[in-house]
Amino acid sequence: MSNDVVSETAAWYSRIAAARVAGIELEELSVALGNVVSSNYFGVGCEEGDVLFARLRHLVKSGTSTLTTCSRQADSLADAALTSERELRESDTANVPRITGER
């Protein structure tokens, strides 16, 4: 096989690694965001403080949910890239005789 195939394999592994790292970092961000404004510093018993805290917590919860979803999507992307790389490599290997004219 040519170096082009090896190069392409390396590119697929780079894509897989990047997606895995992104998934991990997005999940870490989700956890960190979940700790933001975990207590009501705006005045317990203060109507405006309670409302502000509730709204901020809602935003934080929404953000953590979005980040977790993105993390899972990055993991799925890595899995799909791994599958694609393997299928392309297997196809290339199986078709070497047709591509090169070898028997």
Description:
The protein is mainly α and 103 residues long. 83% of the residues lie in helices and 0% in strands. It is built from 3 helices and no strands. The chain has helices spanning 3-34, 47-94, 96-100. Helix 1 runs antiparallel to helix 2. The two termini are 14 Å apart. The mean pLDDT is 89.
- Distance separating the two termini: 14 Å
Number of alpha- plus pi-helical segments:
3
Radius of gyration: 24 Å
Shape, per Cα inertia axes: rod-shaped
List keywords for this structure.
103 residues; mainly alpha; 3 helices
How are the SSEs placed, and which strands pair?
Elements: H1 3-34, H2 47-94, H3 96-100
Helix pairs in contact: 1-2
Quick recap:
With 103 residues, the chain is mainly α. Helix content is 83%, strand content 0%.
